[in-house]
UniProtKB/TrEMBL annotation:
Protein name (database record): Alpha/Beta hydrolase protein
InterPro entries in the cross-refs: AB_hydrolase_fold
Key words of the record: Hydrolase
Single GO term (MF): hydrolase activity
Gene3D superfamilies: alpha/beta hydrolase
Length: 306
């Protein structure tokens, strides 16, 4: 049985059975629909629930979510969103590694003729998946040993998640314990049910990300993985805003590459991107008053009171 065929166990570890969940009731404005991070759960958005005054919906992975390809997952979310909000305009947002899933989802909405009035990426952008040393490893701009490259990509990505978790919130003892629990799950050692499910979910998701990045290059006959990925992202019509945490994903980029990757690669894809830097860690950025206000006013009509 392959990785994509093995089921993910969802037992009291944070995943529910409803794909689109109302987090904040708000008023009559279009809801901001935020996609889960790589772990698939909604717990990281608790700080947002406490501070938001406008409508906020969250998307989570459930037992019925297809995880074999990014395209299948995005189409599944499109259908589930349409069941709750048939007509636009739409406000879409991604946290962490779901950035590439948001691009796929936004393209589906746009191809369907729907209007996206807000497109936000929180502390991640798809190009990070090709960042030297932490992204997909390519030799001569193309992957030669696909199985080995996939394994290396998943391992590097998961180690980055653990590093980010360790640093978050100032590096508290609780964060260090959580990071170790996640690493134990990765290494096949004794770990909590939460850590095991988190790793299994991320393993499947990252495998699908790897396949998409490779396929983008091959399908578009691109000269490099980056060329294929950026061409795909550039096809978006909606204006994007990218929020970057000073001590989040940016902290994982090797020092020698920081100058080139200061914006997480956003400038490679967008002509006039709005990049907002926030003094925070990867997870505690979700508590940022600046982020909370920005997400609520980034689309709001003049005179709206928050």
């Amino acid at each position: 049985m392959t990785n994509s065929q093995r089921p993910v166990e969802f037992n009291h570890v944070g995943h529910g059975t409803e794909t689109v969940v109302q987090l904040v009731e708000g008023g009559n404005e279009p809801p901001l629909i935020i996609i889960h991070g790589g772990g698939g759960a909604l717990q990281p958005f608790e700080p947002m629930k406490k501070q938001f005054k406008t409508r906020l919906w969250g998307i989570q992975i459930t037992p019925t979510t297809p995880l074999h390809t990014i395209s299948a997952q995005a189409h599944f979310y499109f259908v589930k969103i349409k069941e709750k909000q048939l007509h636009g305009p739409y406000r879409l947002c991604a946290f962490s590694a779901s950035s590439i899933l948001l691009v796929s989802l936004a393209r589906i909405f746009e191809e369907n003729g729907d209007r996206i009035i807000q497109l936000a990426f929180i502390d991640h952008f798809p190009t990070v998946f090709l960042c030297p040393e932490i992204g997909v490893h390519a030799s001569g701009e193309h992957v030669i040993d696909r199985p080995m490259a996939r394994e290396r990509f998943i391992a590097n990505s998961f180690r980055s998640v653990c590093d980010i978790t360790r640093r978050d919130g100032g590096g508290t003892a609780r964060r260090h314990e959580l990071a170790q629990d996640l690493m134990n799950a990765f290494n096949g050692e004794a770990a909590s049910d939460f850590a095991k499910t988190f790793f299994r979910t991320m393993e499947l998701y990252l495998g699908a990300v790897f396949d998409l990045v490779i396929d983008m290059s091959e399908r578009r006959d691109a000269e490099s993985l980056m060329e294929g990925l950026t061409a795909w992202i550039k096809s978006l019509k909606a204006t994007a805003t990218v929020y970057i945490a000073s001590n989040g994903v940016l902290g994982e980029i090797p020092t020698q590459h920081r100058r080139e990757w200061w914006d997480l690669g956003v400038g490679r894809c967008l002509l006039d991107p709005k990049v907002v830097y926030l003094d925070a860690g990867h997870y505690d950025v979700l508590s940022s008053k600046k982020l909370i206000r920005d997400l609520q006013t980034g689309y709001a009509p003049v005179g709206a009171t928050l």
